[in-house]
Amino acid sequence: MNWYGIKAIYIHEMERFRRTLFQSLASPIITTSLYFVVFGSAIGSRITEIDGINYGSYIVPGMIMLTILTQSISNASFAFYFPRFTNTIYEILAAPLSSFEIVVGFVGAAASKSLIIGCVIILTANFFVDVRIDHPLLMMFFLILTSITFALFGFIIGMYAEGFEGLQIIPILIITPLVFLGGSFYSINMLPEFWQKISLLNPVLYLISGFRYSFYEVSDVSLLTSTLTILTILIGCIIFITYTFSKGYRIKD
Amino acid sequence: MKNILEINNVTKFYKNSVKALENVNLNIKEGEIFALLGPNGAGKSTLINSICGIVNFNTGTIKINNMDIVKNYRTTRKITGIVPQELNLESFETVWNNVNYSRGLFGKKPDHNYIEKLLKQLSLWDKKDNKIKELSGGMKRRVLIAKALSHQPKLLFLDEPTASVDVELRKDMWDVVKKLNKDGVTIILTTHYIEEAEELSDRVAVINDGKIILVDEKDKLIKKLGEKTIKIELFESVKKINGNLSKYNFTLDQTNKIISHTYNLNSNTTDITELLNDVKKDGYKIKDINTEQSSLEEIFIKLIQENNNELVRN
């Protein structure tokens, strides 16, 4: 293993995060605060509780997931697309690094950034509502696994994107709607039966549900199904990246 | 001297089926400076990018230190460095971070003393805390060289190292290259500045349309393919070349006082002693004699033209 190589990529990416720390943290903190104002205060005054949990507290895991998913994707996609755009990728490709090591460096950094932001959101949420974490280890397990999985997904976008606009298309058009419709701000039990069934087709629902279970022991689907879903997406991303690297497609053409 | 690089039958197609390299065979000896010449789009960059692992090639084998670059990529890439043609650098990073980052990528333990020495050698030490965007084009080119040398490679590829730099800086770069070679680094440079190849290289290859059309020692190449011109300045002007001199295809300059004859060094068709005797026999008094040898540039243009004509015929 080229540990120094992995460390170089990781530190290089984290350094970028440090340089733009204010923007990196200010944006999710402001967004979270706005969600609390809009959803927590305005809607929360009408929906007081869901599954016995105060509405403001209930939406915290969903908000964290929304941020983790979007940040993991955008961090990883930008991190890999940027050297492609500036052509500085030549030295990564010329270095004695396996594709696995390249992915570990980039995805590790993107997931770390998301985890830091996730933790900041939990702290921010505490200023607005009571946040209880019944299973901290399980919460960390979901947080880490989701960050890594969606950083891998972002890495794929970074490999295939043709321009900076391409980096935004999937997060805006697919991920954000899936998170909003995946029970971030409500329980699917509140929906009519038909829409409940439709919601079950949304993989993000399982992530939010499992994550919410780690906080309040309430969930829309079983913990096992949630875990298997996230693992399936993770394995799918790994297979896709391995295949792309082995063919050199869009990287070593 | 042993081969540090062996390229056998390498072919590369791009996605749109454009053949970038066709059955390229080339051996590079350890310790030499090798120049790869060719017009734009000839396949120079594709070839070195294939050797360095930046692009995949389709068929053939490439060995560095007798090790296959695909199977033993970790070992072979550790001793290889590349300076790209474009100024590909992260503008917002400092020189120091940029160079240390490159060393890390190549699996080397941080060595701040070595990086300091390297930056001093390349006159970059006082710029170490500057961001790349604050540097001039020449400085950026030096940073690229520092990055390529950060892991102490044995084989260095310079892709158009002096492209779009001024004459003074070009000379500086040449000094850097000579110094590196003196320190034991084998250097392969691609260029379309013939004077660069002429100044630096031990051997030269000419690539055109993805094919290596010639490999030879620079001096031999000039001798083998080079033409020489003898210019004889006379005391009196010549109205018409006739008599004994008519057999030499002399040309007259505007002053009608300098007669020039071009001959091939290898052909043995021109006997200079006899030629000078004939000048004397025709009654001319010689004021001065000057000879000019064709440069690599002229040879290069001739070769490319011949090769292109052949391609058209085929």
Brief summary of the model shown:
Chain A contains 11 helices and 2 strands; from the N terminus they run ααββααααααααα. Chain A has 253 residues and is an all-alpha fold. In chain B, the strands form 3 sheets. A 6-stranded mixed sheet of chain B has the order 6-7-8-3-9-10, sandwiched between helices.
What would you say this structure looks like, in words?
- The complex is a heterodimer of chains A (253) and B (314).
- By secondary structure, chain A is mainly alpha-helical.
- Chain A contains eleven helices and two strands, in the order ααββααααααααα.
- In chain A, strands 1-2 form a two-stranded antiparallel ribbon.
- In chain A, helix 2 packs across helix 6, helix 4 (60-86) packs antiparallel against helix 6 and helix 4 (60-86) packs antiparallel against helix 8 (164-180).
- The two termini of chain A are 25 Å apart.
- Chain B has two domains: 3-223, P-loop containing nucleotide triphosphate hydrolases (Rossmann fold); 227-293, Alpha-Beta Plaits.
- The longest helix of chain B has 18 residues, at 296-313.
- The chains are: A mainly alpha (253), B alpha/beta (314).
Shape-level CATH architecture of the largest domain in chain B? 3-Layer(aba) Sandwich
How far apart the termini of chain A lie comes to 25 Å
C-alpha-based Rg of chain A, rounded: 19 Å
**Rg of chain B, nearest Å:** 24 Å
> Could you say how many structural domains of chain B there are in total?
2
Shape of chain A: globular
Largest sheet of chain B: 6 strands, mixed
Helix content, binned percent of chain A: over 70%
Oligomer: heterodimer
Biggest sheet layout of chain A: 2 strands, antiparallel
What is the CATH level 1 assignment of the largest domain in chain B? Alpha Beta
Total domain modules of chain A: 1
Q: Would you tell me the overall average pLDDT of chain A?
A: 86
Cα end-to-end separation of chain B: 38 Å
